[in-house]
Protein backbone atom coordinates (compact mmCIF):
# COMPACT_ATOMS: atom_id res chain seq x y z
CA UNK A 1 0.00 0.00 0.00
CA UNK A 2 1.24 3.53 -0.75
CA UNK A 3 0.79 4.60 2.88
CA UNK A 4 2.95 1.78 4.25
CA UNK A 5 5.60 2.46 1.65
CA UNK A 6 5.54 6.20 2.37
CA UNK A 7 5.98 5.65 6.11
CA UNK A 8 8.77 3.10 5.64
CA UNK A 9 10.57 5.30 3.13
CA UNK A 10 10.35 8.31 5.42
CA UNK A 11 11.78 6.42 8.41
CA UNK A 12 14.65 4.94 6.37
CA UNK A 13 15.33 8.35 4.87
CA UNK A 14 15.54 9.80 8.39
CA UNK A 15 17.99 7.01 9.24
CA UNK A 16 20.10 7.95 6.20
CA UNK A 17 20.09 11.60 7.31
CA UNK A 18 21.17 10.79 10.85
CA UNK A 19 23.76 8.21 9.77
CA UNK A 20 25.11 9.48 6.42
CA UNK A 21 27.96 6.93 6.38
CA UNK A 22 25.59 3.98 6.79
CA UNK A 23 25.13 2.13 3.49
CA UNK A 24 23.68 -1.37 3.95
CA UNK A 25 24.68 -4.16 1.60
CA UNK A 26 21.99 -6.54 2.91
CA UNK A 27 18.40 -6.04 4.07
CA UNK A 28 15.94 -8.25 5.96
CA UNK A 29 12.33 -7.08 5.55
CA UNK A 30 10.12 -8.80 8.14
CA UNK A 31 6.42 -8.54 7.28
CA UNK A 32 7.42 -7.54 3.77
CA UNK A 33 3.96 -7.69 2.17
CA UNK A 34 4.55 -6.83 -1.50
CA UNK A 35 8.21 -6.11 -0.78
CA UNK A 36 7.60 -2.69 0.75
CA UNK A 37 10.76 -2.41 2.86
CA UNK A 38 12.96 -3.71 0.05
CA UNK A 39 11.62 -1.17 -2.42
CA UNK A 40 12.04 1.65 0.13
CA UNK A 41 15.62 0.66 0.97
CA UNK A 42 16.53 0.35 -2.70
CA UNK A 43 15.14 3.83 -3.36
CA UNK A 44 17.40 5.33 -0.70
CA UNK A 45 20.64 3.34 -0.83
CA UNK A 46 20.78 2.09 -4.42
CA UNK A 47 21.68 4.35 -7.31
CA UNK A 48 20.34 3.91 -10.83
CA UNK A 49 23.73 2.80 -12.17
CA UNK A 50 24.10 0.10 -9.55
CA UNK A 51 27.39 1.50 -8.24
CA UNK A 52 26.09 1.44 -4.67
CA UNK A 53 23.76 -1.55 -4.76
CA UNK A 54 22.13 -3.78 -2.20
CA UNK A 55 23.80 -7.17 -2.57
CA UNK A 56 21.11 -9.34 -0.97
CA UNK A 57 17.61 -8.88 0.41
CA UNK A 58 15.21 -11.25 2.14
CA UNK A 59 11.48 -10.66 2.52
CA UNK A 60 9.54 -12.60 5.16
CA UNK A 61 5.74 -12.72 5.28
CA UNK A 62 3.33 -15.39 6.53
CA UNK A 63 0.96 -14.67 3.63
CA UNK A 64 1.71 -16.76 0.53
CA UNK A 65 -0.37 -14.44 -1.64
CA UNK A 66 1.68 -11.45 -0.54
CA UNK A 67 4.92 -13.27 -1.29
CA UNK A 68 3.65 -14.17 -4.77
CA UNK A 69 2.75 -10.54 -5.34
CA UNK A 70 6.18 -9.41 -4.15
CA UNK A 71 7.86 -11.79 -6.58
CA UNK A 72 5.60 -10.69 -9.44
CA UNK A 73 6.31 -7.01 -8.78
CA UNK A 74 10.04 -7.72 -8.88
CA UNK A 75 9.88 -9.77 -12.08
CA UNK A 76 10.92 -6.71 -14.03
CA UNK A 77 13.43 -5.23 -11.64
CA UNK A 78 14.43 -1.58 -11.68
CA UNK A 79 18.07 -0.76 -12.31
CA UNK A 80 18.60 -0.21 -8.59
CA UNK A 81 17.80 -3.89 -7.89
CA UNK A 82 19.21 -5.42 -11.07
CA UNK A 83 22.12 -7.17 -9.34
CA UNK A 84 20.48 -7.85 -5.98
CA UNK A 85 19.96 -11.40 -4.69
CA UNK A 86 16.29 -11.59 -3.66
CA UNK A 87 14.81 -14.33 -1.46
CA UNK A 88 11.26 -14.56 -0.06
CA UNK A 89 10.15 -16.88 2.75
CA UNK A 90 7.04 -17.42 4.86
CA UNK A 91 8.79 -17.80 8.20
CA UNK A 92 11.76 -16.28 9.94
CA UNK A 93 14.49 -18.84 10.58
CA UNK A 94 17.88 -18.40 12.20
CA UNK A 95 21.06 -20.17 11.20
CA UNK A 96 24.35 -19.27 12.89
CA UNK A 97 26.16 -20.13 9.66
CA UNK A 98 24.24 -17.53 7.63
CA UNK A 99 25.64 -13.98 7.68
CA UNK A 100 23.42 -11.42 9.45
CA UNK A 101 21.84 -8.45 7.70
CA UNK A 102 23.17 -4.89 7.83
CA UNK A 103 19.62 -3.53 8.03
CA UNK A 104 16.52 -5.23 9.41
CA UNK A 105 13.09 -3.62 8.99
CA UNK A 106 9.86 -4.68 10.71
CA UNK A 107 7.01 -2.33 9.77
CA UNK A 108 3.53 -2.64 11.29
CA UNK A 109 4.07 -6.20 12.53
CA UNK A 110 4.30 -5.89 16.34
CA UNK A 111 0.59 -5.16 16.72
CA UNK A 112 -0.35 -8.25 14.70
CA UNK A 113 1.37 -10.66 17.10
CA UNK A 114 -0.75 -12.69 19.50
CA UNK A 115 1.09 -11.98 22.77
CA UNK A 116 3.96 -10.14 24.43
CA UNK A 117 5.90 -13.41 24.59
CA UNK A 118 5.65 -13.85 20.81
CA UNK A 119 6.71 -10.24 20.29
CA UNK A 120 9.75 -10.65 22.54
CA UNK A 121 10.87 -13.89 20.90
CA UNK A 122 10.44 -12.29 17.47
CA UNK A 123 12.46 -9.25 18.51
CA UNK A 124 15.18 -11.53 19.81
CA UNK A 125 15.28 -13.41 16.50
CA UNK A 126 15.36 -10.18 14.49
CA UNK A 127 18.15 -8.78 16.67
CA UNK A 128 20.24 -11.94 16.24
CA UNK A 129 19.97 -11.62 12.47
CA UNK A 130 20.97 -7.94 12.52
CA UNK A 131 24.62 -6.95 12.23
CA UNK A 132 24.14 -3.19 12.42
CA UNK A 133 20.72 -1.46 12.43
CA UNK A 134 17.21 -2.63 13.38
CA UNK A 135 14.20 -0.47 12.47
CA UNK A 136 10.78 -1.01 14.08
CA UNK A 137 7.68 0.84 12.90
CA UNK A 138 4.12 0.72 14.22
CA UNK A 139 0.92 2.71 14.23
CA UNK A 140 0.75 6.22 15.66
CA UNK A 141 -1.75 5.28 18.35
CA UNK A 142 -1.35 4.85 22.12
CA UNK A 143 -1.17 1.09 21.57
CA UNK A 144 1.39 1.43 18.78
CA UNK A 145 3.48 3.78 20.92
CA UNK A 146 3.31 1.29 23.81
CA UNK A 147 4.58 -1.55 21.62
CA UNK A 148 7.49 0.52 20.32
CA UNK A 149 8.31 1.76 23.84
CA UNK A 150 8.27 -1.78 25.24
CA UNK A 151 10.50 -3.01 22.42
CA UNK A 152 12.97 -0.23 23.18
CA UNK A 153 12.97 -1.05 26.90
CA UNK A 154 13.56 -4.72 26.20
CA UNK A 155 16.47 -3.97 23.87
CA UNK A 156 18.06 -1.54 26.34
CA UNK A 157 17.65 -3.96 29.24
CA UNK A 158 19.63 -6.40 27.13
CA UNK A 159 22.57 -3.95 27.16
CA UNK A 160 22.07 -2.98 23.53
CA UNK A 161 22.79 0.47 22.15
CA UNK A 162 19.72 2.27 20.84
CA UNK A 163 18.73 5.55 19.27
CA UNK A 164 15.75 7.37 20.78
CA UNK A 165 12.33 6.56 19.28
CA UNK A 166 10.28 9.27 17.63
CA UNK A 167 6.51 9.66 17.39
CA UNK A 168 5.88 11.57 14.19
CA UNK A 169 3.43 12.55 11.49
CA UNK A 170 4.49 11.39 8.05
CA UNK A 171 4.71 13.71 5.06
CA UNK A 172 1.57 13.68 3.00
CA UNK A 173 1.36 10.45 1.06
CA UNK A 174 0.28 10.81 -2.57
CA UNK A 175 -2.70 8.57 -3.32
CA UNK A 176 -2.79 6.95 -6.75
CA UNK A 177 -5.93 7.41 -8.84
CA UNK A 178 -7.37 3.97 -8.07
CA UNK A 179 -7.17 4.63 -4.31
CA UNK A 180 -8.87 8.00 -4.66
CA UNK A 181 -11.76 6.28 -6.44
CA UNK A 182 -11.88 3.30 -4.07
CA UNK A 183 -11.97 5.49 -0.96
CA UNK A 184 -14.12 8.15 -2.64
CA UNK A 185 -11.60 10.68 -1.40
CA UNK A 186 -11.65 14.35 -2.31
CA UNK A 187 -7.88 14.82 -2.04
CA UNK A 188 -4.93 12.90 -3.47
CA UNK A 189 -3.02 12.89 -0.17
CA UNK A 190 -3.42 11.65 3.38
CA UNK A 191 -1.62 12.17 6.68
CA UNK A 192 -0.49 9.03 8.50
CA UNK A 193 0.65 8.92 12.12
CA UNK A 194 3.25 6.38 13.17
CA UNK A 195 5.81 5.53 15.85
CA UNK A 196 9.27 4.19 15.13
CA UNK A 197 12.47 3.01 16.76
CA UNK A 198 15.98 2.82 15.28
CA UNK A 199 18.41 0.57 17.14
CA UNK A 200 22.10 0.18 16.33
CA UNK A 201 24.50 -2.44 17.63
CA UNK A 202 27.76 -1.34 19.22
CA UNK A 203 29.04 0.57 22.21
CA UNK A 204 27.18 3.65 23.35
CA UNK A 205 29.02 6.92 22.73
CA UNK A 206 30.71 8.46 25.77
CA UNK A 207 29.34 11.87 24.80
CA UNK A 208 26.60 13.18 22.55
CA UNK A 209 27.73 14.78 19.32
CA UNK A 210 25.36 17.31 17.77
CA UNK A 211 22.41 16.14 19.90
CA UNK A 212 18.94 16.30 18.45
CA UNK A 213 16.48 18.47 20.32
CA UNK A 214 13.45 16.79 18.76
CA UNK A 215 13.72 13.90 21.22
CA UNK A 216 15.45 13.71 24.58
CA UNK A 217 16.60 11.06 27.04
CA UNK A 218 14.33 7.99 27.15
CA UNK A 219 12.70 9.05 23.89
CA UNK A 220 10.50 11.78 25.40
CA UNK A 221 9.10 14.37 23.02
CA UNK A 222 9.73 18.06 23.61
CA UNK A 223 7.84 21.08 22.38
CA UNK A 224 10.06 24.10 21.77
CA UNK A 225 9.08 27.71 21.19
CA UNK A 226 11.37 29.62 18.83
CA UNK A 227 10.46 33.35 18.74
CA UNK A 228 11.55 35.81 16.05
CA UNK A 229 13.84 37.45 18.60
CA UNK A 230 16.03 34.34 18.62
CA UNK A 231 17.21 35.09 15.11
CA UNK A 232 16.17 34.85 11.48
CA UNK A 233 17.69 31.41 10.80
CA UNK A 234 16.34 29.58 13.89
CA UNK A 235 12.89 31.12 13.33
CA UNK A 236 12.86 30.09 9.67
CA UNK A 237 14.03 26.55 10.47
CA UNK A 238 11.34 26.22 13.13
CA UNK A 239 8.62 27.21 10.66
CA UNK A 240 9.86 24.79 8.01
CA UNK A 241 10.50 21.79 10.29
CA UNK A 242 8.25 18.72 10.50
CA UNK A 243 7.58 16.39 13.42
CA UNK A 244 10.57 14.12 13.99
CA UNK A 245 13.03 16.35 12.12
CA UNK A 246 16.45 17.12 13.52
CA UNK A 247 16.50 20.66 14.95
CA UNK A 248 19.97 22.20 15.50
CA UNK A 249 19.03 25.34 17.47
CA UNK A 250 18.57 25.14 21.26
CA UNK A 251 15.56 27.19 22.44
CA UNK A 252 15.88 30.29 24.61
CA UNK A 253 12.97 29.21 26.77
CA UNK A 254 12.89 25.81 28.52
CA UNK A 255 11.32 23.14 26.33
CA UNK A 256 8.18 21.38 27.51
CA UNK A 257 8.18 17.59 27.71
CA UNK A 258 5.09 16.04 26.13
CA UNK A 259 5.30 12.41 27.15
CA UNK A 260 2.85 12.42 30.05
CA UNK A 261 -0.34 12.44 27.98
CA UNK A 262 0.85 9.50 25.86
CA UNK A 263 1.87 7.49 28.91
CA UNK A 264 -1.48 8.18 30.57
CA UNK A 265 -3.32 7.15 27.42
CA UNK A 266 -1.31 3.93 27.22
CA UNK A 267 -1.98 3.12 30.88
CA UNK A 268 -5.67 3.79 30.31
CA UNK A 269 -5.71 1.24 27.50
CA UNK A 270 -4.01 -1.28 29.77
CA UNK A 271 -6.63 -0.72 32.48
CA UNK A 272 -9.45 -1.42 30.03
CA UNK A 273 -8.08 -4.89 29.24
Automatic annotation (TrEMBL):
BP terms from Gene Ontology: translation
Keywords, ordered alphabetically: Iron, Iron-sulfur, Metal-binding, Mitochondrion, Transit peptide
Record field: transmembrane: none
Entry's localization field: Mitochondrion
Sample GO molecular function, one term: structural constituent of ribosome
GO CC list: mitochondrial small ribosomal subunit
Keyword Transmembrane in annotation: no
Protein function: Mitochondrial ribosome (mitoribosome) assembly factor. Binds at the interface of the head and body domains of the mitochondrial small ribosomal subunit (mt-SSU), occluding the mRNA channel and preventing compaction of the head domain towards the body. Probable inactive methyltransferase: retains the characteristic folding and ability to bind S-adenosyl-L-methionine, but it probably lost its methyltransferase activity.
Protein name per Swiss-Prot or TrEMBL: Mitochondrial small ribosomal subunit Rsm22-domain-containing protein
Origin species: Syncephalis pseudoplumigaleata
Amino acid sequence: MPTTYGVTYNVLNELARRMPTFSPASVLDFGTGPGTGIWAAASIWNDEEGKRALERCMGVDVSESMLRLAEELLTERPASLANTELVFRRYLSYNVNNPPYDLTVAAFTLGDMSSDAVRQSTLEALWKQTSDVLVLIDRGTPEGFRLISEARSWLLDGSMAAESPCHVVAPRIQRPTFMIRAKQAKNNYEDTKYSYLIVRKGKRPTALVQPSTSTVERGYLQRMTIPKSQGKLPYRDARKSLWGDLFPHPPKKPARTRVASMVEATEAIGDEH
